[in-house]
Amino acid sequence: MTIKGVVLSQKPWGEHDKFIDVLTETGIMEILVKGSAKITSKSGSATQLFAYAEFDISDKKTKKNFYILRTVVPIQIFYDLRNSVSAVALASYFAQVILYSALPHTNTPEILRLLLNCLYYLSKPQENLDELLLKCIFELRIASLLGFLPDVLMCRNCNCYLPENLYFSIEQGCFYCESCKKSGIFMPAGALQAIRHIVLRDFEKIFYFKISEHCKQPLFKFAEEFLQYHIDRYFQALEYYNKIKY
Fold this sequence. Notes:
Radius of gyration: 20 Å
Mean pLDDT: 92
Helix content: 25-40%
Oligomer: single chain
Number of helices: 6
């Protein structure tokens, strides 16, 4: 059986082998890579963390419920990620979120596509797409793919479409205009427009938009807290990323 996927994690097994978790279009597969620690290993770069590759694996699971790698061909290794400690930390956070929350056959093709694009932009930084904005796009888009789409259409109370200022509720997943203030994260209209763009636009367009500086902080705060609240998990890689970034 041949599959394409991204290596999300790896752990040593014995003296020379390792297990890798690979995100594919149908879910996450656990694969045993034999002889990976040997100097003569031909699978090294293609089975390292964040590598995107084509894996030829045993067509049936072993009795211990994992597959065995036969051969592997690298497609994209994302070498440039290693040039930045914060980029590696952020990529690790993305991987941990997916490992914890992705279910087989549940939007996994879209999740794989999202991860590949995020890894590309982390390794090839763009002028209008810094790490924090990329983190925000990942958090909001994957939350939507996992079934936690926020209600971004109008004020829950008065149906106002675009108030000048508003409060977005993490718990309720909706916003209230300033006049109908309930509780939540205060943000200007520009931040709401950004959230709408990220969760509603076609995938090809979600990485391309402009946002004012004064709108970024409430947007970043909302994206991180919204994802954490709905999947009920805090990740070590995120804690480390926030320490080195702020």
